[in-house]
């Protein structure tokens, strides 16, 4: 029983310690909040000054005036984090000379050196933080260091390095796709596509190479690139992805072909229908419904009896949208008088009106 | 004879003590695990721009399914709130589960609905659908209202699954208030699939009593003024921030709250949808999905997000609370019974060997052990076979740990999301943590015991859940 009482006292004592800590923490936070207001004004003022800074005609790189108090504050971790957050946000929103001024300010304050120190840290979040800073600030001189991290095990470090490389090199930065051995998740792909939307696409090369990559996620990403940038010259490469062993790659290829198609694309897709997974069969019918231009609509009718209602509906939609006479053909088919086509056809008619 | 009696009493006493220590050790373990998990999540989150997903055509398509039964009083505002959610590839499906009030006519009038020609692909068997309604107005094009015969929440959700055209479904209670970025945050784990397929994601549900709500939007978070909702606030913080985060890290989650969860529709359909024969359909579906994946040998994951994404009104009277906890107990037992094959079955890996047994021993059995344990101890103490001092020491030991655990949960809340900001609120929460074991907990245990009794009596009703409604902002004079 003595152990029970000791433990009991220990739990109560610990709870009281936590409550004291909680009160102290809240008190400190209150003080911090007041500080943040002052700091934000100070940081905003400096950033504004830096953005609109003119060097004059001296020919020498001029220093942006920074108060000693500001430099002293930078030694405070919370101030530093707040400043970095704001300068990164500002750099993302401005370009040209304004952006260059912010980069100069960043270097002038010695923050690049601090970022390099963070990069050497063993903690993944500090590495990612450093990479994000160096990439956003456009410090190309650190490119080789950052590039090493594009194929790191830690997903966050990897994606931040990939984004940084894109920031520094533009589309050329996508060369990490040549060597990446890790899967590029859908989330990463969305991030990369977003970053790419802000850089010039003219010299985007290498998609053909990535379409035959050994990493299936690289192929999927390349298919998305081909679709987003309407790379019709890659049509044959895209069609060859329809024979890939991974169903996900084939599905993305089908999806890409709904945007990049030629006269016989529907026939090409239809030819692969029987060998496909159920999910991809649905995707093929959905694609045909978008592409249309089916030479032989009657070929689609044979699939009306195949599979579940979902498939029947996808086939019916493909028939209706596949050719100008699709709806008439479907209506004249005896099966159109039976369930579930009796329920599907009115909806398809409505869709046509839209 | 005397030694036999003392052996029995010792066995009982130390058995109960061992059980308590084991349970407390589990809680301690969860608290430790959740610290790391929340810290990692927050660090990763600081690099996440959810705005990316909001505007991306690559974002996964999501259908929100919200069953409504006699929700006429608030349905218009609730639907407006759902339609204002920040997400591109979204459809909002309201399933009117045979309401006897004017829910449907109100929706038709306000949202300019017409009965559309709509093919309902009945992949899951449900009660009959009377009609599918869409809006004539472009601004409400995301909205689909389904009118069906009454069949209960699970049946309504199954109809929603049949009607939905998107890859992921988010099942919510129609009266819940979602944060604007709730779907973005819930969708992200599905996009991070690599080796394991994410089949479901759960988010934190918080208590909205006393919060200020206007036009279906949460304007100001406030700690509930009434004791019961406040103690449930504490309970939810503990359960979500510590318990589920830890289970999420271990990939052992068996429950995603019925009030708010996202699911991979393909797997839901393959599993046959929600089971309308149980009152714990939310837990049952997650267990069935996991069991299915395990049996098919597909690596999978159920994710959990610590952000407060969904706000709901908690019962504010003992009567309603009792019904709710009674139902939760019955739901848990029914689910465990339906999937008893998983119990300590190595074929189901971590789920069979750890998650299921934990639920069995510490979620299902705990209230029973506690109830009968206390009765037996009182009897023994009255008979003089154990000392009252020992009885009170044991009681205080449990009480002190419970208090410590609650204070720790409050600390985690303050260090992470700090929704209740002021010192006054936090002191109120700490006081609540002190009172909880004395007032709230015994009632919860009693409700769970009643749940067991009702199940034995084969009572399977949902139990009426009347709500008071949210606090609206006072108009400034």
Automatic annotation (TrEMBL), chain A:
Gene3D superfamilies: Leucine-rich Repeat Variant. Keywords: Membrane, Transmembrane, Transmembrane helix. The chain crosses the membrane at residues 6-28. The keyword Transmembrane helix applies. It comes from the Bacteria. This is HEAT repeat domain-containing protein. It comes from Pedobacter alluvionis.
Automatic annotation (TrEMBL), chain B:
Belongs to the glycosyltransferase 2 family. Pfam families: Glyco_tranf_2_3. Keywords: Glycosyltransferase, Membrane, Transferase, Transmembrane, Transmembrane helix. PANTHER family: POLY-BETA-1,6-N-ACETYL-D-GLUCOSAMINE SYNTHASE (PTHR43630). GO terms for molecular function: glycosyltransferase activity. The keyword Aminoacyl-tRNA synthetase does not apply. The chain crosses the membrane at residues 12-35, 358-386, 392-414, 426-449. This is Cellulose synthase/poly-beta-1,6-N-acetylglucosamine synthase-like glycosyltransferase. Signal peptide: none annotated.
């Amino acid at each position: 029983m003595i152990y029970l009482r000791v433990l009991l006292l220990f739990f109560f004592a610990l709870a009281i310690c936590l409550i004291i800590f909680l009160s102290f923490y809240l008190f400190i936070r209150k003080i911090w909040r007041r500080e943040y207001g002052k700091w934000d004004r100070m940081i905003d003022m400096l950033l504004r000054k830096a953005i609109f800074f003119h060097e004059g005609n001296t020919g020498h790189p001029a220093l942006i005036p920074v108060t000693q108090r500001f430099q002293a504050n930078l030694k405070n971790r919370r101030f530093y984090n707040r400043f970095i957050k704001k300068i990164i946000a500002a750099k993302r929103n401005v370009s040209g000379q304004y952006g260059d001024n912010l980069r100069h300010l960043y270097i002038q304050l010695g923050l690049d050196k601090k970022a390099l120190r963070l990069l050497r840290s063993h903690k993944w979040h500090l590495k990612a933080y450093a990479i994000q800073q160096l990439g956003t600030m456009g410090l190309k001189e650190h490119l080789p260091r950052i590039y090493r991290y594009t194929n790191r095990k830690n997903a966050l470090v990897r994606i931040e390095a990939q984004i940084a490389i894109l920031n520094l090199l533009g589309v050329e930065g996508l060369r990490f796709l040549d060597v990446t051995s890790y899967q590029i998740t859908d989330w990463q792909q969305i991030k990369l596509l977003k970053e790419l939307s802000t850089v010039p696409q003219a010299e985007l090369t290498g998609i053909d190479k990535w379409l035959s990559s050994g990493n299936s996620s690289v192929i999927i990403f390349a298919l998305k690139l081909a679709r987003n940038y309407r790379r019709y010259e890659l049509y044959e490469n895209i069609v060859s992805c329809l024979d890939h062993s991974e169903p996900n790659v084939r599905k993305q290829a089908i999806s890409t072909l709904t945007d990049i198609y030629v006269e016989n694309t529907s026939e090409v897709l239809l030819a692969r229908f029987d060998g496909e997974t159920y999910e991809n069969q649905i995707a093929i019918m959905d694609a045909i419904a978008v592409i249309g231009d089916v030479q032989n609509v009657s070929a689609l009718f044979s699939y009306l009896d195949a599979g579940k209602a979902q498939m029947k509906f996808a086939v019916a939609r493909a028939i209706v949208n596949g050719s100008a006479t699709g709806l008439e053909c479907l209506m004249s088919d005896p099966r159109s008088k039976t369930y579930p086509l009796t329920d599907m056809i009115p909806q398809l008619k409505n869709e046509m009106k839209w | 004879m005397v030694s036999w009696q003392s052996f029995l009493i010792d066995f009982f006493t130390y058995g109960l003590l061992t059980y308590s220590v084991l349970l407390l050790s589990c809680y301690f373990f969860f608290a430790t695990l959740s610290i790391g998990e929340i810290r990692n999540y927050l660090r990763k989150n600081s690099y996440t721009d959810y705005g990316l997903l909001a505007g991306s055509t690559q974002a996964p398509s999501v259908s929100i399914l919200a069953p409504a039964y006699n929700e006429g009083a608030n349905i218009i505002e609730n639907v407006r709130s759902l339609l204002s959610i920040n997400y591109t590839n979204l459809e909002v499906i309201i399933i009117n589960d045979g309401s006897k009030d004017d829910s449907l006519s109100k929706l038709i009038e306000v949202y300019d609905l017409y009965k559309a020609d709509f093919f309902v692909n009945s992949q899951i068997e449900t009660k009959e659908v009377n009609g599918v309604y869409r809006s004539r107005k472009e601004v409400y094009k995301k909205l689909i209202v389904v009118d069906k015969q009454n069949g209960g929440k699970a049946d309504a959700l199954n109809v929603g699954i049949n009607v939905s055209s998107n890859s992921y479904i988010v099942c919510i209670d129609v009266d819940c208030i979602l944060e604007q970025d709730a779907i973005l945050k819930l969708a992200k784990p599905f996009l991070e699939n690599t080796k394991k397929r994410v089949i479901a994601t759960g988010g934190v549900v918080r208590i909205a009593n006393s919060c200020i709500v206007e036009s279906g939007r949460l304007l100001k978070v406030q700690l509930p003024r009434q004791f019961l909702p406040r103690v449930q606030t504490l309970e939810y913080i503990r359960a979500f921030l510590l318990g589920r985060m830890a289970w999420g890290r271990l990939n052992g989650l068996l429950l995603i709250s019925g009030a708010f969860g996202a699911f991979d529709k393909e797997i839901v359909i393959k599993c046959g949808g929600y089971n309308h024969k149980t009152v714990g359909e939310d837990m049952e579906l997650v267990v069935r999905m996991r069991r299915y994946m395990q049996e098919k040998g597909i690596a999978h994951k159920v994710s959990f997000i610590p952000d407060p994404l969904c706000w709901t009104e908690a019962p504010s009277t003992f009567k309603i609370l009792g019904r709710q906890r009674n139902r939760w107990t019955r739901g848990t037992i029914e689910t465990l019974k339906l999937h008893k094959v998983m119990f300590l079955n190595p074929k189901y890996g971590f789920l069979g060997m750890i998650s299921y047994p934990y639920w069995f021993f510490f979620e299902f059995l705990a209230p029973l052990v506690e109830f009968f344990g206390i009765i037996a101890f009182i009897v023994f103490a009255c008979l003089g076979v154990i000392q009252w001092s020992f009885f009170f020491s044991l009681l205080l030991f449990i009480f002190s740990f419970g208090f410590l655990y609650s204070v720790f949960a409050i600390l985690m809340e303050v260090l992470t999301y700090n929704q209740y900001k002021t010192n006054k609120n936090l002191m109120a929460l700490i006081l609540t943590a002190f009172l909880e074991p004395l007032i709230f907990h015994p009632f919860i245990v009693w409700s769970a015991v009643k749940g067991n009794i009702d199940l034995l009596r084969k009572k399977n009703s949902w139990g009426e859940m009347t709500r008071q409604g949210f606090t609206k902002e006072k108009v400034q004079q």
